[in-house]
Known about the structure:
By secondary structure, the protein is α+β, with helices and mostly antiparallel strands. It has 22 helices and twelve strands. A hairpin with a 6-residue loop joins strand 1 and strand 2. Helix 5 runs antiparallel to helix 11 and helix 19 packs antiparallel against helix 21.
Amino acid sequence: MPLRARKSVTDVSNHNCTLPQEEDILVRYISGGYFVMFRRWIKRQTMVWESNPRSKMYLKSTFNIRREKIIHLEDHYYMIHPFSSMKCYWEFMMIIAITLMLIIVPIVLCWEHVTSGVLVLRITLDILCFIDILIGFQSGYLDDKTKKIILSQKKVAMKYLKGRFLTDFLPLINSDIMSVFMESQSTDSTSNISGTNSIRFMNIIKILRIFTLTVYMNRLREFYQYSIFRFKMFKLLLITFLLLLWATGVLFVLARESEEEWLINPDDENYLNTNLVICFVEVFDFFFLIDHYPTKSLILLPFELAALAVGVVLQMYFISQILQLVEKHKTSENKYNDKNIQLHNYVRNKQVPPSIASKCQDYFDFKFQKSYYRESEILQTLSTTLRSEINSHICERLLENVDILKDMPFSVITMLTGLMEEEIYLPNDIITRAGDIGDCMYFISSGMVAVYTPGGKEICHISNGGNFGEVCMIMKHTSRVATVIAVDYCDLYVLSRKCFLSAIKTYPDLYRKTMAISKKRMSQVVQTQHGRYRPEEFYDMRTPEGVFYFKKSLYEL
């Protein structure tokens, strides 16, 4: 059980930063000229957005987000970050625009003449789609394999050209404009109607935009953290509706051109609406094989075969989704949801205060990132070699920054990486308290912590790759001389004295050397507290990025 803090130590229970505020990094790049504030606001919309859940998931800490902004401004100034607010809102608007286009086009396809209002709306939607292509060439992406943000314009352009470019570019062909031009130039009404209908039939290529629609909808789901299963069902219903709508329009145009007998008389005042209903019923029969009879028309035969094929695919997809519903509790996300429900029930039954319940939820979300897993069971199934390689990958870079461990043999470093334990702290959690006896050292994998003197004065911040508490780990019965509080969600690795001694017990000379260095540094800390040394000899208070940190490890913590 940890000891109580000394009475003389100020109780710092919350982090209210008293250090000089970090300079807005945009000031360095937009410092003068006209409309400075407006230009900074515009540029800020293209940079990584802290409120985007994907930023928190992949960048994790405020320090990483700030570093991402600096890299963006210095190396890829004119690119748009994939986690930016501009990208998020633009894709949301394009979901509405593409859905509207996919609804309007098959309906207009059935009209003999296009009105000026509809033509203006169609041109507006096409302009938005053209702008979307330009934005696609300027928007970075998240590499699925490395989970890194790619902002290089060359790599972005190559990925877009190999991916969605054709399905975005081909639908830009606006055959309505060509048909209106032909109507104004032709004098033969019969040939005019036939020609314009053939040209307007080219609008069917706009259905390719459905691929971009699904991509943007997937990203919207990630932003709002919707259930994957419910989202898939909604997306399936939307796509099915759009396919039925398009197939209805195409069937009507083909049936009208081939003058099918089952269409009602064109002189009827409800000619269009009634025939569209008839075509919709026919298409529904094609898709789901309900009372279907083969057509005798050679013009409709290819359409019928295509509709039957699409119907079979849709039915197979429906069945797969139903099976997924039955097996949903076996997926990692649904296991996470089940555990989340258990957490809510637990805090409710224990009558936990709302503030603590909220912290429990934050901890759960940060640890599992919306996907539940049992780490101990996973590690037990792996071989010793694989477990060692995973630990080395995670922890070795953290040990490299510790001066006192640099001369240790590789075998000791490898052993230490396997002995470190992960701990997660939420914002304002107290990690160490001045006056407590320490027996471990902390390594910051991600996040940021604030350091306070025993009197409660904030000294600095420490971020990713930093560490503190090594003297307390090495020297027995040593008190902490500073309080450390989490500023961000912090993922820390802890190395205890017991684990450290077990790793170096076969190297007595190394242990004596490490102990001598620790005693010397501890005496320097004591002399600093009595005014014999200036704190500036030990602290480097600001990095070029404006983030406070210790230049040397915090030996005294």
